[in-house]
Amino acid sequence: MIFETFDIVVVGGGHAGAEASAAAAKLGCRVLLITQMLDTICQMSCNPAMGGVAKGQIVREVDALGGWSGIVTDRSAIQFRMLNMSKGPAMWSPRAQCDRMLFSQHWRQVLENIPNLSLWQDEVTGLVLDGNAVAGVRTRMGHTIHAKAVVLTSGTFLNGTIYIGEDSWQGGRVGEAPAVGLSDQLRTLGFEVERLKTGTPVRVDGRTIDFNRLQVQPGDEHPAKFSFADTMALTEQRPCFIANTNLRTHDILRTGFSRSPMFTGRIQGRGPRYCPSIEDKIDRFADKDHHQLFVEPEGWHTQSYYLNGFSSSLPLEVQVEALRSIDGLAEARIFKPGYAIEYDYFPPTQLAYTLETKRIENLYFAGQVNGTTGYEEAACQGLMAGINAALKLQGKAPFVLSRSQAYIGVLIDDLVTKGVDEPYRMFTSRAEYRILLRQGNADQRLTPLGYAIGLADDSRMRRVEEKQRQAEALTRMIEDTSVSPSEANAWLEEHSSALLSQRVRLSSLLLRPEMTLDALVQLSSPLAEAVAEVDGEVLQEVETAIKYHRYIEKEQEVANRILKFEDIPLPTDCNYFAFEALSYEAREKLSKLHPATIGQASRISGVSPADVSVLLITFAR
User: In sequence order, what are the beta bridge partners of 194?
Assistant: First the structure.
């Protein structure tokens, strides 16, 4: 026999598949990762960047749990920026521009050096079943590979179709074949299968760009990093640039609308609302005379630039003509055209919170097959699916994060409870407890949980314990130390802040909006001595915890109140149609989705507060 029996087979080598494989293998399972192309593991098919608003929080959470996305990002970054710094700390979101080729290379090095993890280049065409449970996979090369669990992370490859103008062909990415067979089998097994659409812009030859006519967008002066581990922050960065479309650009793009696969109805799947194609933007926002574009380098040693905001499936000649109407791009040549891709996905209401399918035991879905978009959303699903597949095979309790614990918990709860009708993208606005879910405290929230299941290692846990020790000591010092009017009033007067008439504790002074920890250091010698020994990330968390103490405390109280009802279980075989006190829509939705808890039921569209009250009266006892 060529292949041994594996504990887990992971199908697909993208961001979800890589995290799933690494996590399951780290937890002691024998894992086989099967991907069509080993040379494109974790390829950044679209934008060569990780993080962004809310997405950056997810990467930090993956890292805090013991995943690899943050480490690989730090190793391949070419620019780092902390977004939303003009807003409160709950909104701060890290983002790193990456070297596309290095990112993929580093991920492959990681996977090849994990014990218990094997790689195989092939295409999975079907599942092997044993009754109502998965028992392995069949491949294009004709192999049957037995496994106790399967994690499906096929991205946009399931029956993928690529569109450029009036041309279309089967593919998972330009130049790569689609995955055929799996969707059809799953449909025959009773799974709902639907279509979504996404797209990507042209890649421009940097030698043909006049950067003097573009606005420079540098990285942070003092760049941070993603991983809480001992990766290095950038000491050198590549700049990005900003360009703008104009009315002539829009007029040129409109000439291709009659041949657009989106506007002629050839593409049926819905695309991402918050990352629309350029033709969709000028159609929906016809009153705007320009749209901002981000011209982003794809690596340290390449001339390829990604034109963020110029995703398109229009005919190639229209794309090029419109591109050359943009200031700074008049002589632009392209390396690769923009295109749209339509692909199969499985509505995620067919999943449990562990991302195991409800219909087939030990089969897990993660990533774009669940209707999400983005590397970060895929990575965290892969991590959670890999963890839960491993824990189940080992007879251990499932690992589920709540909405008040992590953005990952928000994302999975949204998927399995509400489903999707367009590619799902994470935003800070989706998290009702975002003051608790800051990017800076992801390690304190999640590393103890990752350590408890064996994913985060001893060194990570020691770092968190040391960070907490430093934070507690510094907080006590700030609460116990006071400052006199003679020490503070000159600074306060200069910054138009109320003067002191008596000594005031530093913690009280820090509550003022105009006051920062850096400013306090200038006013207090004891504090200056104390912070000299403390890590910068600890300083930021201490300042945030003191400044926003009342808000954090209030939000935690709300979360705790809701958690009283969150985990009240609902029977899996409940006949909701027998409850006449429930609205008919609630009975329909509850019967279809069979939520595991009252908390999950309360977030289902169509289940009203009155319906929740009925469930509480019936089951809370």
Answer: 345
As a whole number of angstroms, the distance between CA 555 and CA 314 comes to 47
Query: Residue 65, SS3?
Result: helix
pLDDT tens-digit readout, 208-221:
999 999 999 999 99
Looking at residue 621, what is its pLDDT? 65
55-65 and 407-418 are packed helices; what angle lies between their axes, rounded to 10 degrees?
A: 110
Residue 179 contacts residue 158 (beta carbons within 8 Å): yes
* Cα separation, 178 vs 172, whole angstroms: 4
Residues 6+ positions from 362 with CB-CB distance below 8 Å: 133, 134, 148, 149, 150, 356, 389, 392, 393
Residue 419: the pLDDT is 92
Query: Cβ atoms within 10 A of the Cβ of 496, count?
Result: 7
Residue 434 and residue 405 in contact, taking contact as beta carbons nearer than 8 Å: no
B/e letters for 347-386, b = 16+ CB within 10 Å, e = fewer, are bbbbbbbbbbbeebebbbbbbbbbbbbbbbbbbbbbbbbb
Are the CB atoms for 371 and 400 separated by under 8 Å?
Answer: no
Rounded CA gap, 402 and 405, in Å? 5
The full set of domains in the chain, from first to last, is 6-44+97-154+176-197+343-452 (3.50.50.60), 458-554 (1.10.10.1800), 567-619 (1.10.150.570)
**Interior angle at CA 462, CA 461 and CA 468, nearest 5:** 90
Crossing angle of the two packed helices 549-566 and 536-547, in degrees rounded to 10: 80
Q: Tokens 């037995």 map to which residue? A: 146
- Beta strands at 194-205 and 334-336: parallel, antiparallel or unpaired: antiparallel
Of 66, 82, 62, 77, the C-alpha closest to 224 is 82
Q: Are 345 and 198 contacting, i.e. CB atoms less than 8 angstroms apart? A: no
Q: Say what the pLDDT of residue 351 is.
A: 97
Q: For 369, what's the count of Cα atoms within 13 Å in the CB-facing half-sphere?
A: 33
Rounded CA gap, 453 and 345, in Å? 30
Tens digits of residue pLDDT in 74-119: 999 999 999 999 998 999 999 999 999 999 999 999 999 999 999 9
Which residue has tokens 């999400």? 372
Q: Which residues contact 137 (CB under 8 A, 6 or more apart)?
A: 9, 11, 34, 124, 126, 127, 128, 144, 145, 147, 150
Q: How far apart are CA 30 and CA 4, in angstroms?
A: 10
How are the residues of the chain apportioned to helix, strand and coil, as percentages rounded to the nearest 5?
40, 20, 40
Is the pTM higher than 0.90? The answer reads yes
Positions in the chain short of pLDDT 50: none
pLDDT of amino acid 49: 97
